[in-house]
Write a structure and sequence with these properties.
Elements: H1 2-30, H2 36-48, H3 61-79
């Protein structure tokens, strides 16, 4: 169970970083913005392509969409001057992901 959680966490981190990179690239080179809807459609194509990232198909799509939504919210908050510029998701440290399907996690010990 822990290994699967780490895989989901890593995939969400990669998706967040790809979304950030895509938005920065669009803003810098084409002076346009990228919407959550466009990124969500591209995520579906990315998950279905076995040559680029076959490991993304193992992760629940809802968790990846939530990562995209979190990235979108971070950029909206930045442009509304409610928060700082979104940072890169790091591999080390405490990683988080959200799964809207109501997954229950049972604590096995106090650690």
């Amino acid at each position: 169970m822990e290994a699967k959680g780490r895989r989901v966490q890593g995939a969400c981190r990669v998706v967040k970083n790809l979304a950030k990179e895509q938005r920065e690239h669009a803003r810098r080179f084409t002076h346009s913005s990228v919407s959550y809807t466009a990124q969500s459609m591209e995520l579906k194509e990315l998950r279905n392509d076995p040559e680029i990232a076959p490991w993304l198909s193992e992760v629940p799509a809802q968790a990846l969409q939530q990562a995209l939504l979190d990235s979108d919210t971070a950029f909206k908050n930045f442009f509304a001057k409610r928060a700082g510029y979104p940072k890169w998701a790091k591999r080390s440290g405490w990683g988080r992901f959200r799964d809207p399907q109501g997954v229950a996690v049972k604590r096995l010990s106090k650690r």
